[in-house]
Amino acid sequence: MAEQAQYEELARQLSAVGAVKRDMGRILPPDCPAGSAAVLTLLGRHGDMRMSKLAELLSVDMSVTSRHVAHVAARGWIERHPDPADKRSRILRLTPAGLTELEELSLRTSRLLAERLSDWTDDEVGQLIRLMTRLRASFGDCRSVPARHAAAAAPVFEETTRTPAST
Questions:
Q1: What pTM value is reported for the model?
Q2: Domain span at residue 110?
Q3: Which of 65, 98, 102, 164 has CB 3.0 to 4.6 Å from 94, enough for a Cys bridge?
């Protein structure tokens, strides 16, 4: 088991990840803020879903989820269809334009990571991926599911303002 000093250093390093996320947020297109990118990423990764499931995956309140969904729907990136099992609910689905936007986000993210990690070996990048995946799993992250679409392979924008989820 790690020593107290190691956990303290780990906490400092995790806190500093915010700077990395901010830098990654700067590459987003002006009409696609982080919350919208998170919606596209999660729909690309998990497929069609109800708003309540999206709110759970985003770990935000339904009102925040609704604002994000309204934003991406207004741009034609998702469709909202009645849920056959419950007509009061809506199923969210990526449109072809949404898939294109998601591919663009993935490309921008991949380019930035390739630039910033250019002096890392493939093994080092693989080790970071494995360790981050394990860290997320240790915290019970429900989003650790294989990507459905190739463009969803870079789940960079899943983190948004954290508020209690109410589904």
A1: 0.78
A2: 30-153
A3: 98
